Amino acid sequence: MTVTEQMPADHLMSRIVDGPGGFSGIDGDAQWAAEVRRLVELRGATLLAHNYQLPAIQDVADHVGDSLALSRIAAEAPEDTIVFCGVHFMAETAKILSPAKTVLIPDQRAGCSLADSITADELRAWKAEYPDAVVVSYVNTTAAVKAETDICCTSSNAVDVVASIPADRDVLFCPDQFLGAHVRRVTGRKNLHVWAGECHVHAGINGDELADQARTHPDAELFVHPECGCATSALYLAGEGSFPEDRVKILSTGGMLDAARETGARQVLVATEVGMLHQLRRAAPDVDFRAVNERASCRYMKMITPAALLRCLVEGADEVDVDVDVAAAARRSVTRMIEIGQPGGGGE
Ligand code: SF4
C-alpha cells in the first residue's frame, strides 16, 4: 500500500537520494519527526528502534530496546504492522514470532556481518560432520540458519543454554567465535565446537585498547554490553584480565541503564556499539560516558536513516518475508531459547 494523501511527505520524498550507504537527503529534524509520527498513525503501525540506531530514529520510535525485547513487543502489539528499525535478521526474528503481521524494515540492505558469517548450507555441512551434535546459534543469524538450529541463545543466556545440554553431547556453537570462547571458558566444556564468525565492529575493541583505557582512566568503570557481536570480544577480553575485574560490569540493556543511574563513578567507559551512548547519556546526564572506541559503529545499523524511514512509511517497503516452513522451524529454536535462562537483554 502506498500512502498518498499527505503533502509534507511528498515534499520531503522528492529530496531522497539512494546511494551506496543507503537512502539520504533528509535531516532527522522536528518537521521530519512530526511527519513520521503522522504516517505511523495513518498506517496503524508500531515503530520499534534498536539501541544502536541513530539518535533521531531512537527518539521518534514507540519503543527502543534490544532485538529480543523488541521482537516480543512486536508479537504483543495490538497493531498489525511493525516497522522495525534495526538490521535484517532482527526484523526477520520479529516476523518469525509474529507471522500474521506485516513487518517492514526501512532498508532491507541493512545486513549484519556476523549473521552473514554462516549460511544454512555451511551449517548443514558442519552438522553432517557431527551428526549427533546439538546446534546452538546466537540470535544474530538468518531465519534459514535458525531453522537448522536446535536452540538459539543470546549473550545473556548462552552459558545456561549450553549447560542445559547433556555433557556427553557434542555442541556446535555459531556464528560468534568470541561468545563461543567465552561460553567454553565458563562451562569448561571440551566438546563445544565454535564457528569462526565475527562482527566487523568488534575489531574496534581490542585487548590492548582496553588495557590502555584502564591505565589512562584509573577511576572509570567499564560497562560491557554484549547484546550484539560488536562487544562479545570485550566480554571475552574482560574475562582474560585486560581490565581490572572489580571495575567491569557486564550488563544487559536494562541493567546498563539502571547501572548508569546508580553509578558512583564520574566517568564510565562503554564497550558497545556507539548508538547505546545516546540512551546512557539521556539516563544519567551527569556521568561522562565514553566509548572504548568511537569507531565501534555498525554501518548496517546506520543505514536506517531518516530518509529510509520516511520512504518506508510512504511506500510500505521493504517488507520482510520468511518462508512458512522456515519460519516454523526457526520459531522452535527461538522458543527453546526463551524457555531457558534469561534470554532478554533487558530492553525498554
Ligand atoms: S554491530 Fe555487528 S553483530 Fe551487531 S548488527 Fe552490526 S554487524 Fe551485526
TrEMBL record:
- The reply to whether Cell inner membrane figures as a keyword in the UniProt entry is no
GO MF annotation list: 4 iron, 4 sulfur cluster binding; metal ion binding; quinolinate synthetase A activity
Recorded GO cellular component terms are: cytosol
Pathway, per record: Cofactor biosynthesis; NAD(+) biosynthesis; quinolinate from iminoaspartate: step 1/1
Q: Entry's InterPro entries? A: NadA, NadA_sf
Question: What are the UniProt keywords, alphabetically?
Answer: 4Fe-4S, Cytoplasm, Iron, Iron-sulfur, Metal-binding, Pyridine nucleotide biosynthesis, Transferase
- GO BP field: 'de novo' NAD+ biosynthetic process from L-aspartate
Kind of enzyme, top EC level?
transferase
EC number(s): the record gives 2.5.1.72
Entry cofactors: [4Fe-4S] cluster
A Pfam family annotated for this chain is: NadA
List the PANTHER family hit by this protein, alphabetically. QUINOLINATE SYNTHASE, CHLOROPLASTIC, QUINOLINATE SYNTHETASE A
Annotated protein name in UniProt: Quinolinate synthase
